[in-house]
Specification:
19% of the residues lie in helices and 28% in strands. The protein is an alpha/beta fold and 237 residues long. The longest helix is centred in the middle third of the chain and has 12 residues, at 102-113. The strands form 2 sheets. Strands 1, 2, 3, 4, 8, 9, 10 and 11 form an 8-stranded mixed β-sheet that branches. The protein has a 3-stranded antiparallel β-sheet with strand order 5-7-6. The chain is globular. It contains 6 helices and 11 strands.
């Protein structure tokens, strides 16, 4: 058996969880979230966490579970509008929040994974999101504009969810789950993946692998996934 394969989420996270670490959490809305590992982190009782994620889950699922138990100290995110507990903690000053435009957040994660400590973007210039950040003027593509410096993000651990993975840690994501999981997988000291199916090494087409195994240190197969729909819309007429 590969040294990367673990029995379940608790085993895969064993020895990695501590108070006050930064966790990079994959997923887009409730799609492609590492739900088994979120539950295992909740059960571990670690606290003071800084979590980087596009979304903050909902009140009773996803990262919302860690907000309920007050295990998250700071959220670095883009869209947080589906979680009333998040709103309550933020407005009461219990939760530190660093909001990012979605593209900026994605690039901060990608940059961290690529070893780039900072970059400049026009996004957010002149708004509150740019307050306190370095601003420079650049001539680019024949135009002169102000650009805001943003730092790359690199965590202690990354938790991602994939559709298929092999014993070497090569991963394939399915549809919307590919939005943030691949960049999260590159942007941490240790990356753990939960997958729907473990497949034999060599069965994944080389040019179809989304995250190469070099980025993944641990993985396990989940026994079930809820795959909730965040906003269900049904035609009535």
């Amino acid at each position: 058996m590969s040294h990367k394969l673990y029995q379940d989420a608790a085993a895969a996270l064993d020895g990695l969880l501590q108070d006050d670490i930064m966790i990079m959490a994959g997923g887009f809305g409730l799609c492609g979230i590492p739900e088994h590992m979120i539950a295992a982190i909740q059960a571990s009782g670690v606290k003071g966490l800084t979590v980087v994620s596009n979304n903050a889950g909902v009140d009773d699922f996803g990262l919302g579970l860690l907000l309920q138990t007050r295990q998250i100290k700071k959220m670095i995110a883009s869209y947080v509008g589906e979680n009333k507990e998040f709103e309550r903690q933020f407005l009461s000053g219990e939760l530190e929040v660093e909001l990012n435009p979605q593209g900026t957040l994605a690039e901060r994660i990608r940059a961290g994974g690529a070893g780039i400590p900072a970059f400049y973007t026009r996004t957010a210039y002149g708004t509150k999101l740019a307050e306190g950040k370095e601003v420079r003027k650049f001539d680019f593509k024949g135009e002169t504009h102000h650009y805001v410096m943003e730092s790359g993000l690199f965590g202690d651990i990354a938790i991602v969810k994939a559709w298929k993975g092999d014993a070497e840690g090569n991963l394939v994501y399915r549809k919307t789950a590919r939005n943030f999981n691949p960049i999260m997988a590159t942007a941490a000291r240790v990356t753990i993946a939960e997958v729907e199916e473990i497949v034999p090494v060599g069965s994944l087409p080389a040019d179809g692998i989304h995250t190469p195994g070099i980025f993944v240190q641990r993985l396990f197969a989940g026994d079930r996934f809820e795959k909730r729909i965040e906003q269900r819309t049904v035609r009535t007429g």
